[in-house]
Amino acid sequence: MTWCFLIVYKNVLEYVYILLPVQPRSNIPRKSRSEDVFIDLKRRILAWEYPPGYRLKEDELCREFNVSRIPVREALSRLGQIHLVERKPNVGCSVKRWTLDEINDLYELRVASECYVAEALAGNPPKRSVFEELREEWSGYLEKSKWDSFSQVHWSSRDEFFHESLAEQLGNNQILLTLHDTNARLRFLRVKDITSEKVLSTSSKQHLAILDAICDGDVDKAKATVRANIHMGQRNVKVALQEVLFRAFGG
Q1: Is the distance from CB of 80 to CB of 86 less than 8 angstroms?
Q2: Exposure of 238 by Cβ count < 10 A (0-12 exposed, 13-18 middle, 19+ buried)?
Q3: Residues forming a β-bridge with 4
Q4: 100-249 belongs to which homologous superfamily?
Q5: How confident is the model at residue 51 (pLDDT cuts 50, 70, 90)?
């Protein structure tokens, strides 16, 4: 145990030295309660346990997690920063409720930015070895065992990584930042991109075709396949969103 001296002043010429134990600091950081609340609420939203529009009432969350309002508010604020919840005056926080126009706008932005990335890369094709890991990963997803092993959250995360990897290879940081922000806004919805083994297989084949077209210098095919891949995900998301809203709010 570590000890320290506490000096207590008694008079001008005299001090008393008291030996006190010092408690050692733990090397393992303690996770804050707000982090616990944030992680659990994020999981529920991404799993669609809380549908779009679901009210997140602070008093109920405080009772459920047995915490004060401060950790709850911190967690809700962080969820707002990643576009999973929204706060409205005199209403409070709720899971973000998307409109079809908002979804279409963001997917159009994806098409525009990612088609440009594909065109630029195919116009100056990199070596096939550059995409070796991506090719190996998405070739593996054609195996049925892969479908049984991971959640939809995993698929959407890997799909984001694929498309952002292409933008990173291009070397345009502004396009990469734009794509990253767009994906962050769509993340909650894109969990519903891949809804079946058939969709996963189609998406995997499209990803591999994109890589082949880029490496072959086939600009038209690269752009067309990127567009088809994004539009497929857009259709799946819109159908899933409409179904969830119908179940939650009766149409």
Answers
A1: yes
A2: middle
A3: 20
A4: GntR ligand-binding domain-like (1.20.120.530)
A5: confident
Long-range contacts of 200-209 (CB under 8 A, 24+ apart): 200/141, 200/146, 200/147, 200/155, 201/141, 201/142, 202/232, 203/159, 203/229, 203/232, 203/233, 204/138, 204/139, 204/141, 204/142, 205/142, 206/232, 207/134, 207/138, 207/162, 208/135, 208/138, 208/139
pTM of the model: 0.72
Among 100, 70, 37, residue whose Cα is nearest residue 235: 100
- Tell me what the mean pLDDT of segment 161-180 comes to: 94
Q: Do domains 33-95 and 100-249 have the same CATH topology?
A: no
pLDDT of res. 149: 61
What pLDDT is attached to residue 145? 58
Residue type, 249: F
Q: Which of 167, 48, 171 is nearest to 109 (CA)?
A: 167
Domain boundaries, the chain: 33-95, 100-249
Which amino acid does the sequence have at 7? Answer: I
Side-chain-side CA neighbours of residue 65 (13 Å): 24
And the tokens for 23? 């408690």
What does DSSP assign to residue 172? -
Mean pLDDT of the chain: 83
CATH class of domain segment(s) 33-95: mainly alpha
Q: What CA–CA distance (Å, rounded) separates 187 from 212?
A: 27
